[in-house]
Design a protein that fits this description.
InterPro entries: CvfB_fam (IPR014464), CvfB_S1_2nd (IPR048588), CvfB_S1_3rd (IPR048587), CvfB_S1_st (IPR039566), CvfB_WH (IPR040764), NA-bd_OB-fold (IPR012340), S1_domain (IPR003029), WH-like_DNA-bd_sf (IPR036388). With 286 residues, the protein is an alpha+beta fold. The protein contains four helices and 18 strands.
């Protein structure tokens, strides 16, 4: 392994000037600090702190501009390009962007980041010493979390998706809360790195939160539909209530208005869970 590695910040001595800049050395290896990467404070008679990266030809190079992330640090970086067969490129604050390999992205293209999304990443080298950006693991994200309290219930929040799974979507909110979005609490599955706006619908004992991306009216409709469907199942799949029932009957049985009841039934019928016949509502049997 080489002493000088891309993705690290090092302090090197100035060896000699070249047509395109200055060569720096650690005593064993040399690297070029191009004129375009030099800052005003550069003094060829003094050691210089630089970040090492790979230029567009894949050669190790140096810059006096400090990046947003290194091999030893994590930070939020913005997606600036997408290559379907390769992955996505993120800006780390330098003249050259860094690739996040598709191996470190979700399998489904629909939830992969697009330009403008943000990822919490570090830098890494592969076996060929090529520099990549890598999204943080759950263990790393845990270090960023703060605990929510019960008073945060029903609070509107903004967060960024840091993990997309079959079970649901995980976000970190602007406050630092770890949030989980069940697939029933969203219209579409958010992308990794996407900014989302939602509402806290539960605060867990460990300080994490459950979040809904649905509008409050939609959430109420979903709750009402669940209440009606649960009652239907308790009766063995049939109940003597339909959209023709009297409002006072609906209010007495379900504690909801006739309008809310009809919306709940409409949702269940749209989902093909129930059907109505002669004033009764029945479960659709598979």
């Amino acid at each position: 392994m080489y002493n000088l590695q891309a993705g690290t910040i090092v302090t090197l001595d100035v060896k000699n000037e070249a047509p395109f800049g200055w060569f720096l050395t650690d005593g064993e290896e040399t690297v070029l600090l191009h004129h375009s990467e030099i800052k005003e404070e550069f003094d060829p008679d003094e050691p210089v702190e630089v970040f090492l990266f790979q230029d567009h030809q894949g050669r190790l190079a140096a810059t006096m501009t400090m990046p947003l992330i290194t091999q030893d640090t994590y930070g939020w970086v913005e997606v600036v390009g997408v290559e379907e067969k390769l992955g996505v490129f993120v800006s780390i604050g330098l003249t050259k962007d860094v690739l996040v390999s598709e191996d470190d992205l979700p399998f489904m293209y629909s939830v992969r980041p697009i330009v403008g999304d943000r990822l919490y990443c570090t830098l890494k080298l592969d076996r060929k010493e090529r520099l990549f950006a890598k999204p943080a693991t759950e263990d790393v994200m845990e270090e960023q979390f703060t605990k929510a309290s019960k008073k945060d219930f029903n609070k509107d929040i903004t967060g960024i998706v840091y993990r997309a799974t079959k079970a649901g979507t995980f976000i970190i909110t602007a406050e630092g809360y770890r949030g989980f979005i069940h697939d029933s609490q969203r219209k579409v599955e958010p992308r990794l790195g996407q900014k989302v706006d939602g509402r806290i619908i539960d605060v867990k004992e460990d300080g994490s939160v459950n979040v809904s991306l649905l509008g409050r009216k939609q959430e109420a409709q979903q709750d009402d539909a669940g209440k009606v469907y649960d009652y239907l199942l308790q009766r063995g799949g049939s109940m003597p209530y339909s959209d023709k029932s009297f409002p006072e009957e609906i209010e007495k049985r379900f504690a909801m208005s006739k309008g809310a009841f009809k919306r709940a039934l409409g949702k269940l019928m749209k989902e093909k869970k129930v059907y109505q016949e002669e004033g009764w509502t029945h479960q659709v049997k598979e």
